[in-house]
Design a protein that fits this description.
There is one protein chain. This protein has a domain of 110 residues: Beta-clip-like (Beta Complex), CATH 2.170.270.10. 11% of the residues lie in helices and 21% in strands. The chain is built from three helices and twelve strands, in the order ββββββββαββββαα.
Length: 179
């Protein structure tokens, strides 16, 4: 279970690196802003014990592996400022979730820059890079020239589109088995 923050009870998890820009209460308009500049391929944060593994797929969770009949513990709650990284079809960061739960315990789960990020820029990632099937599909409003429109998860996307993005290995495996 995640504790959703708001402007009243907000305690920053990464106060030197990021800041939440709050949107109107009850909307999905809040976003995470970088407080420093990052070069391409920089590690912005490591995901560790603050993350909670869960069977529950939620709009705040991130999928880190494929579901099997005996293992449904496939999502994680970030429980940090990182939950406010919004979707973009032209993302500037990725959640790199290698080696399942072992990857988290070995500090291999990271937030990484895909390009140069300037101080004051919002952080964005491609939700389908971690999500097979979204619990809350939506019509994208990123306004990028590369906007894909409806975002439902990698399950509903053509491989030719996915190949243009950083995609986590569990999603690649699921896409391969979908054929």
């Amino acid at each position: 279970m995640t504790m959703m923050m708001n402007a009243i009870n907000y305690t920053p998890s990464h106060p030197d690196q990021f800041q939440i820009e709050w949107g109107p209460e009850g909307t999905y308009a809040s976003r995470l802003i970088s407080l420093e500049s990052f070069a391409p391929d920089s590690i912005l944060a490591t995901l560790g014990p603050e993350t909670i593994l869960t069977e529950t797929k939620a709009y705040t969770s991130i999928q880190f592996k494929e579901e099997t009949p005996t293992d449904r513990l496939i999502h994680l709650e970030l429980n940090s400022d990182l939950v406010y990284i919004n979707h973009s079809c032209e993302p500037n960061v990725s959640f790199v979730l290698e080696n399942g739960i072992v990857g988290r315990d070995q500090h291999q789960w990271v937030l990484k820059s895909l390009c140069e990020i300037k101080k004051g820029q919002p952080l964005t990632f491609a939700y389908f890079s971690t999500e097979w099937e979204m619990t809350q599909p939506f019509d994208c409003q990123c306004q990028s020239k590369k906007c894909l429109g409806r975002i439902e998860g990698a399950k509903f996307m053509d491989e030719s589109i996915l190949s243009k993005y950083f995609i986590n290995d569990h999603i690649k495996r699921m896409k391969k088995s979908q054929k």
